């Protein structure tokens, strides 16, 4: 990223303008840009041959690429990154977009899940892309936990929280579990976790397991550790990743290779077990972050971009994230303020409700 910024600083005014016009045209139309088109837009009058020479220089620097046999150029991932970091102009949030987002959050319902579902739908509708919403973990104190065996390879954990919230989660127990080992594991946990949140209980139980490994049999210990994995978000419903607008991405492309990349993206989303990584993308600082192509750790195979921002509770603690994903030619200048506003609004609403 720093290398790209240095290259931008070294470009002369003509090269910088040619580069900017190519990227802006590509983001707008999704098509290669030729020298003749650029000569009509440049602030100085130069020949198409001069523009072609500049384009070749930019291609040599790794900022542009020539798709197939086209005489036009498109930005590379490095070029898009340089544009986003150094030349992108962020527009103000459009009042129509603001109104659409606000309209989805007017309900006084205490259903946080329903609120975030509506947020995802609004983001998808406003941006015409796919939206991602990572819902917050339930951090109320626990009153009781119980394990229920359903079959040899299926069990249910029932969590009862002090605020009356109840969650039932299916999971696959370690081999060899018996009803008695499950009861022993539940009794062990209930003696320790009452009045603690899941995060607090997890830290404390890890310590307890270390100190008391000899006091519980191997099967019960496996159950405790399995339960901890569930609480930590590995493939279970908490935290939950909401995806809306898949059809927007599928309808936005007419090329088979583009369509395949989008399909890969959603296959990745649907099978992704460690979705907490999505929140990790946004945790390096407040505000909106942009991940282009392979920079995007979750979806590097899709050739897509992710614009993501965390949202926070009243204590300024990051508890979730919202984002928009689409082709690398996203309208970043418009998408960034939409994601930023939505994240701030969600944070305020959840803080008010708590």
From TrEMBL:
Q: Which residues form the Heat-inducible transcription repressor HrcA C-terminal domain?
A: 115-336
Transcription regulation as UniProt keyword: yes
Single GO molecular function = DNA binding
A Pfam family per the record: HrcA
Q: For this chain's UniProt record, which GO biological process terms are given?
A: negative regulation of DNA-templated transcription
Keyword list, A-Z: Repressor, Stress response, Transcription, Transcription regulation
Top-level taxonomic group: Bacteria
What is the stated purpose of this protein?
Answer: Negative regulator of class I heat shock genes (grpE-dnaK-dnaJ and groELS operons). Prevents heat-shock induction of these operons.
Name the PANTHER family for this protein. Answer: HEAT-INDUCIBLE TRANSCRIPTION REPRESSOR HRCA
* Sequence similarity: Belongs to the HrcA family.
This chain belongs to which protein, by name?
Answer: Heat-inducible transcription repressor HrcA
The species is Cribrihabitans marinus
